[in-house]
Amino acid sequence: MAKKTFILCLFITLKFVLQYLVISPEYELHRDEFIHIDQGKHLAWGYLSVPPFTSWTAYLILLFGNSVFWVKFFPALFGILTLIIVWKAIEDLGGNLFALILGATAVTFSVILRMNMLYQPNSADILFWTLLYYSLLKYINSEDNKWLYVMGLALGFAFLNKYNIMFLVLGLLPALALSDQRKIFKNKHLYFSAGLALLVVSPNIIWQYQHHYPVIHHMKLLTKTQLVNVNRLDFIKEQFLFFIGSLFIILAAFLSFFKYEPFRKYLVFFWSFVFTLSIFIYLRAKGYYAIGLYPIFLAFGSVYLERILTARLLWIRYVALLIILLLFIPLLQIGFPVKSPADIANNPEKFKALGLLRWEDGKDHQLPQDYADMQGWKELAEKVDADYEKIEDKRHTLVLCDNYGQAGAINFYSKFKNIRAVTMNADYIDWIPLDEEIKNVILVQNADDDDKERKKEQPLFRKVAMTGKIENQYARERGTIIYILLDAKVSINKILKGDILENRWD
Predict the structure, then answer these.
(1) Of 372, 395, 419, which residue constitutes the final position of a domain?
(2) In total, how many domains does the chain have?
(3) Residue 265 is part of which domain span?
(4) Is the same domain home to 157 and 239?
(5) Do residues 365 and 267 share a domain?
(6) What is the pTM of this model?
(7) Same domain (yes/no): 278, 392
(8) If exposure means fewest CB atoms within 10 Å of the residue's CB, which of 30, 90, 129, 284 is most exposed?
């Protein structure tokens, strides 16, 4: 085995192992992971929340046994593929061993490790952005039209994973027009590749049309409830923090386009970055939306630094690697759930100083919100199971939850594989089994619900009783209440169909 291949295999192994080590065993899956797993049970060309790509890997997770190992496997795999593409880009740019090690180290010990920690569309998003940029790099080097088609496929699948790939396109098109690469617009294969991308995404576009374009409603809601609160200055600050250990590599990449003659033909990448980032800033995007921009620049910067750090400056090469590792250590301590909830609660100083204990409600809590979203789910599933086990008519029993985290967690952790937990929001609203009569309901309600005696449901069922609540002190869902509603007096299906149940129970 060649030395370079051996080192790449070491990085792949390290990357894979790290993805499982950066989460302490005291933590469960994150609330956002559950909905994506359940999408694998309801394959479609689109969903209210996301395009369909994540549901395909979720289907594989279900086939492989639906274990935590496989849930974590796919984001780890996408991170490894991103690493490999950066490695190949460095080779194509003429980089040797130091550049390869520097780039691989920068990818491994960065915010990408954090993004690859959770089963969400973000990991594949970063991968597809990197692949699209790499395909453009290959086309510029070779003018081989096959790379335009690879770009088309990357764009198509990126769109089926997360719609924000269009921001890259909006930044790349003017960058191409202003650069020496504008001749690409005279190449008919560019338009054929665009047609290929359109063909790939067309099933999702048709689905959006058939469902009255929920993506537009989702974007309006996102803009109204979340993006409006994004501070543009905070967005810019986050860009420096994401790759803080390898920031010098990215800056070197930007410099290389102007100072290093062989890289001047790649100036389109710099302007693409500028335009896309400007769009994000203008639209008040969340900081992590832009992470996919950076991996390709780690390749450019690594090669450039290898060129300028000549024999008399070899010691700086070791310093560069050491900087990445040393600056990652504090990020690891506070940016990853490596400490138990009790350890964080007993030693909150660093987290509080950085504002990490402040949740969406504007108050400080014992854990960062993301970590609290990884607590209490097993307890919830066990208590729902205890109620479900006592019900004889399980076929006509529905578990109705207040939010998608509760529903997905019950479906994942329950020992009953045929349990049906749903909610009247997110994608679950389309998965309520109205084809079978519903006679019993296990109701899961947030702690802040104002009808704890369930007076609104008393007329609908012959028995209504509270059976338990989440008691995990570290869980964001702490206090969530579980009720059992037995032997319906009326048609619950009709109530659900008419959205009356939503109004009463929400």
Answers:
(1) 372
(2) 3
(3) 3-335
(4) yes
(5) no
(6) 0.92
(7) no
(8) 284
Rounded alpha-carbon distances, angstroms, from residue 127 to 170, 288, 289? 18, 14, 13
Asked if residue 251 and residue 388 are part of one domain, the reply reads no
DSSP string covering 107-145: HHTSHHHHHTTS-SHHHHHHHHHHHHHHHHHHHHHH--T
Same domain, 317 and 362: no
d(CA 200, CA 218): 22
Q: State the virtual CA torsion across 50, 53, 54, 56 in degrees, nearest 10.
A: 140
The per-residue b/e assignment along 261-295, b for 16 or more CB within 10 angstroms, e otherwise, is: eebeebbbbbbbbebbbebbbeebbebbbbbbbbb
End-to-end CA distance of the chain: 61
C-alpha atoms less than 13 angstroms from C-alpha of 24 in its C-beta half-sphere: 18
Statement to judge: residues 364 and 388 lie in one domain:
no
Q: Do 424 and 287 share a domain, yes or no?
A: no
Query: CA 100 from chain center: how many Å?
Result: 27
Final residue in a domain of this structure, among 325, 349, 372: 372
* Domain co-membership, 278 together with 394: no
